[in-house]
Design goal:
It is a single chain. The chain is an alpha/beta fold. The chain has helices at about 15-25, 55-65, 80-95, 115-125, 145, 170-180, 200-210, 220-230, 235-250, 260-265, 270-280, and strands at about 5, 30, 45, 70, 100-105, 130-140, 155, 165, 190, 200, 215-220. The protein has a domain at about 5-140 and about 170-190: Rossmann fold (3-Layer(aba) Sandwich), CATH 3.40.50.720. The strands form three sheets. Strands 3-2-1-4-5-6-9 form a seven-stranded parallel sheet, with helices on both faces. A two-stranded parallel sheet has the order 7-11. A two-stranded antiparallel ribbon has the order 8-10. The chain is globular, with a radius of gyration of 19 Å.
Length: about 290
């Protein structure tokens, strides 16, 4: 029997793409998700019973017999690290031999971006559990850049003149598939980024070009950023995550440009202009 690769988040934008690439390569794949009915129907892929990261026993059963776990990070939550460690404990109990974890660029205990701290703590936990591991530290998604602009065609945030090397979901999936199907990646940490780091003013300029409408970037102070997001009515930790993501850009923590995509996949990383060309719906909210 070929080794089984368990893919979490297979109904999402990263996990689903990775699952399709693995199946296309002829790998033995098991799809995991909280709602099996939402998982993609891929010929040859096994669909596990419902498994939530918080439910250790359900996760253990879903992973039983698999050798490799592709662990997509859980949705942002106050207790996100605890959710991740629950999933890792289940993987260890199931006998998983290798974990490939989707982390975040600049993960560190003192990262400016608060969610990046969660990823660092998760990485540290995985390091101490026993299975081999590989960490994919993805930058911001290219898909997030058009969404930063509101319907008023303004990007607001405390990013100053900092830069971000955002990356396409497709490139992340290609890197993940190469790691999952290849050898020599145990213990490695890969920064997965786009080919160039853009300022938010340059992002606005590119959006202006494709829409034919003026899109601008307005830098905010921290106080202004909190005030402009207060109307969403979400918890403080979530607003802090939003605001600190811009502050991480200002601090230069998102400016890293790596060669992981071309080196591991054999093709160049997608540019922001290329993403917009392929995804016109991403900026439709900026059109009349």
């Amino acid at each position: 029997m070929p080794p089984v690769i368990a893919v979490t988040g297979a109904s999402g934008r990263v996990g689903g793409r990775v699952a399709r690439r693995l199946v296309g390569a002829g790998a033995a794949v098991r799809l995991l998700g909280r709602n099996p009915g939402r998982l993609p129907a891929l010929a040859g892929a096994d669909i596990a019973p419902a498994a939530d990261y918080r439910d250790g026993e359900a996760m253990r059963r879903a992973l039983d017999g698999a050798q490799t776990l592709f662990l997509v990070s859980a949705h942002e939550a106050r207790e996100r690290v605890r959710v991740h460690t629950s999933a890792v404990d289940a993987a260890v109990a199931a006998g998983i031999e290798r974990i490939v974890y989707v982390s975040f660029l600049g993960a560190a205990p003192d990262a400016t971006f608060t969610y990046a701290r969660d990823h660092w703590h998760t990485e540290e936990y995985i390091r101490g559990t026993g299975p081999a591991y590989t960490f994919l530290r993805d930058s911001f998604y290219l898909a997030e850049l058009p969404a930063m602009a509101g319907a008023d065609r303004v990007i607001r945030g405390p990013a100053s003149e900092g830069r971000v090397a955002a990356v396409a979901h497709e490139d992340i999936a290609d890197v993940a598939a190469a790691v999952l199907l290849g050898d020599g990646h145990d213990g490695a940490t890969y920064d997965v980024t786009g080919p160039v780091a853009l300022s938010l003013a340059e992002v606005a300029g590119e959006l202006s070009r494709v829409t034919g409408r003026t899109v601008t970037y307005v830098p905010e102070t921290r106080e202004e950023a909190y005030a402009s997001r207060a109307h969403y009515g979400v918890e403080d930790w979530e607003v802090t995550g939003w605001v600190s993501s811009y502050e991480a850009i200002a601090a230069g923590e998102m400016a890293t440009v790596s060669d992981a995509v071309p080196r591991l996949t054999g093709h160049p990383a997608k540019t922001f202009a290329g993403y917009l060309m392929d995804n016109p719906d991403s900026y439709r909210h900026l059109l009349p």
